[in-house]
């Protein structure tokens, strides 16, 4: 059995609190901001969330998934109801789960990640879409800390866009 170790790819943190809880911002078709927020008490917004088979594992892993979404009809943040995007996202998260599954209980939220097209935008224009994605990750993480962590050691992991979100979260 692999032991949980610090490496170039994982950083173990024991987090007590994280400041900055707030509402998500959604950019509407008209380009106007509207306050919204995802309810992470809804299990459908988690690809993985603790299960009975995880008993005895050494730590938790909060996994933030990579970019899989391509803008569909001008939506630059992945809609949480887009079945095709969610299937792709779940598949990608499933591949990453194997890295941690021997030692960690997995927690992987669905978030309104930016589409690949956002990476081609000027930084000042793209940031509003990244902020939507980050606010979902932050809200999911705060929900996890308040309801699921119970003081356990924690790995925050991310790949691609998820790594950017993890860095934002740690800041």
Notes on the structure:
With about 170 residues, the chain is of the alpha/beta class. About 30% of the residues lie in helices and about 20% in strands. The chain is built from three helices and seven strands, in the order E-E-E-E-E-H-E-H-E-H. The protein has helices spanning about 85-100, 125-150, 160-170; strands spanning about 10-15, 25, 35, 45-50, 60-65, 105-110, 155-160. A five-stranded mixed sheet has the order 1-7-5-6-4, with helices on both faces. Strands 2-3 form a two-stranded antiparallel ribbon. A hairpin with a 5-residue loop joins strand 2 and strand 3 (about 35). Helix 2 packs across helix 3 (about 160-170). It is globular.
Task: Give a quick precis of the structure.
By secondary structure, the chain is α/β, with parallel strands linked by helices.
What is the topological layout?
Elements: E1 11-13, E2 24-27, E3 33-36, E4 46-48, E5 59-64, H1 83-100, E6 104-109, H2 123-149, E7 154-158, H3 161-170
Parallel strand pairs: 5-6, 5-7
Antiparallel strand pairs: 1-7, 2-3, 4-6
Helix pairs in contact: 2-3
Q: Helix/strand/pairing class, anyone?
A: alpha/beta
Query: What about the largest sheet?
Result: 5 strands, mixed
Percent range of helical residues: 25-40%
Uncertain residue ranges: 1-35
End-to-end distance? 33 Å
Order of H and E elements: EEEEEHEHEH
What share of residues are in beta strands? 15-25%
Q: What is the strand arrangement across the widest sheet?
A: 1-7-5-6-4
Mean pLDDT: 78
Query: What is the general shape?
Result: globular
How many β-strand runs?
7
Tally of contiguous helical segments: 3
Cα radius of gyration in angstroms = 16 Å
């Amino acid at each position: 059995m692999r032991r949980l170790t610090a490496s170039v790819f994982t950083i173990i943190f024991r987090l007590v609190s994280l400041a900055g809880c707030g509402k998500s911002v959604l950019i509407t078709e008209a380009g106007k901001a509207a306050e919204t927020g995802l309810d992470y008490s809804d299990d459908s917004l988690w690809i993985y969330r603790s299960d009975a088979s995880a008993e005895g594992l050494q730590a938790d892993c909060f996994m933030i998934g990579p970019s899989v979404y391509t803008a569909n009809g001008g939506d630059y943040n992945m809609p949480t109801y887009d079945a095709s995007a969610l299937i792709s996202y779940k598949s990608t998260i499933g591949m990453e789960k194997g890295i941690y599954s021997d030692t960690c209980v997995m927690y992987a939220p669905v978030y309104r990640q930016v589409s690949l097209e956002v990476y081609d935008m000027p930084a000042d224009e793209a940031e509003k879409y990244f902020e939507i994605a980050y606010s979902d990750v932050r809200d999911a993480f705060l929900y996890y800390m308040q309801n699921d962590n119970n003081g356990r050691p924690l790995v925050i992991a991310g790949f691609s866009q998820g790594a950017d979100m993890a860095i934002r979260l740690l800041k």
